[in-house]
Write a sequence for this structure.
């Protein structure tokens, strides 16, 4: 068993706790929320970002961002689900590639599906996925503006 070390540092509402040489865990307070980060959470975050980090999957997720009918008179519209064929046509990829990538996204809880007869329709799993794509896009735009 490794030596037990306890170190606590407080900086800007962020507490870092080091328990031993192999495990680092800490709390980060953002507004009224506290995130507890440990090695398991870091690996899960890494896996999540790996799934989102593929160009074809980014195109698919971006395609599914536009899942609300803009002609609906309500603010949020109603959900429009897209088939593999619809997505493939929109992003310019083969149906087999899109189908494979949708399986990866579904297994990673990025998309959900709704089966109607022999057709399967896909949409974003929840608002977290929508926010990941939007925030990443905004971050890219902000960096581009800074570099101009």
């Amino acid at each position: 068993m490794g030596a037990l070390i306890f170190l606590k540092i407080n900086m800007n509402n962020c507490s870092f706790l080091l328990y031993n040489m192999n495990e680092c865990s800490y709390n980060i307070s953002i507004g009224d929320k506290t995130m507890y980060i440990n090695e398991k959470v870091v690996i899960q975050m890494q896996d999540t970002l790996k799934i989102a980090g593929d160009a074809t999957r980014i195109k698919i997720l971006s395609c599914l961002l536009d899942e609300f009918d803009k002609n609906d008179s309500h603010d949020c519209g109603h959900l429009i689900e897209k088939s593999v064929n619809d997505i493939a046509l929109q992003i310019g990829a083969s149906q087999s590639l899109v189908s494979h990538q949708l399986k990866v996204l579904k297994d990673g809880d990025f998309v959900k599906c709704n089966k109607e007869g022999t057709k399967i329709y896909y949409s974003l799993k929840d608002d977290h996925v929508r926010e990941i794509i939007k925030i990443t896009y905004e971050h890219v735009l902000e960096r581009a503006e800074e570099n101009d």
Residues 1-10, 15-21, 69-78 have pLDDT under 50 and may be disordered.
